[in-house]
Fold Permease prefix domain 1-containing protein.
Amino acid sequence: MDTHAGLEGQIDRWRGYVLRHQAISAADVDELEDHLREQIADRRATGLDDEEAFLVAIKRLGNLDQISREFAREHSERLWKQLVLVPADTGGSTPAWRELVVVLCLALGAGATVKAGIAGIGTDSALVRNLGLLVMPFATAYFAWKRHLARPVLATIVVSFAALAAVLNLYPFTASGSTEVLAALHAPVVLWLLLGLAYVGGRWRSDRRRMDFVRFTGELVIYLALLALGGAVLVGLTLGTLSLIGVDFEPVLEDWILPFAVPGALVVAAWLVEAKQQVVENIAPVLTKVFTPLTVVMLLVLLSVLVGAGDLNSIDRDLLILMDAILVLVLGLVLYSVSARDPLTPPGLFDALQVALVTLALAVDAVMLTAMLTRLAEFGASPNRLAALGLNVLLLVHLVRAAWLAVGFLRGRRAFAALERWQTRYLPVYALWAAVVVLAFPPLFGFS
């Protein structure tokens, strides 16, 4: 449906109001929003303008309590039906213990698969190439079970996993060659897209669900870091205690605990994010406000170093790789900041800081692109150079458009929803580029 920025802003305010009522989940609000948009489209077809169509459509939906009760009756299996209609009845949702059993089984399955992979896969490079395939299907399976995926969506995910596995294991890679390393680095991006498809329940066209997945990704990183820190402390104390009494714990740690704990942590962290969303959403705005100014300072230093280097040919290749990693992290921080922001609040100082962050990242990316093109002209094409060049071109397009929309929001000319939509709609492009690197680069460069 063709809508104007003003109408999108009204829909965003309505959605924010509905989401603040804890009885309704984000998925349910998506359904309500679809119904609201249908009503608006019907009203506009009769000749009403955007504002009139919106007001009439909202009135037809009724007040929030009425909507909750109507949805509760139509979706009898939903947990929030018990909160709205019959609080004493708890038989309409999956018991917590059953979900915990599913999560633990999937976590153990991921660990067992990695353990079997370590024993059965011949070379270390082949193990690294397949590591994501050994772990990510179990986290994806959790959301496939949780979201009750439709068969076509489930079939798409399974076939994609199988196709990626075939490519990674049937291609005659040169051991430790450039194309093998690139395939190992880019395959997790494709797997991340498949995980996202399961997370959004197959509704990848929904801007809001894609933004939910962005938020989930950031929160997953937080939980994984917390689990890693807690696990490191626990393992350190155990090692120290056992060493004092003469027990060698390292073989058990290396052969059994780490192969099961590390992949299992991904599944457990995904479950924790899903179960504790409201808690982490309180942390997200704090984290973004702390790290955004620090990242701005870091980019200023890096930009001055790059500009001061003089001859771009003299920039070390490892430095360019490191800068790429930093830009990807900056992009992740920008996305997480957008996902954590209340779209109903007016632009302020933090939004100006976000514009500064994106602008600095854009300047760094421009310098890096110039250096890469210079090296490409001097030394010729290679898999690594073309892969890095492609990534930086994608980052350039992403950042230019994001900066343009963010400035428009600061000046009051665009709704924040336009920036959100651009950020989420561009994300699949990275996965598509990663798929090109995995599928096309090896045969293009002779699998070397």
Notes: The chain has three domains: 5-84, 96-271, 276-414. Residues 276-414 form one domain. The chain is about 80% helix and 0% strand. The first helix runs from residue 5 to 19.
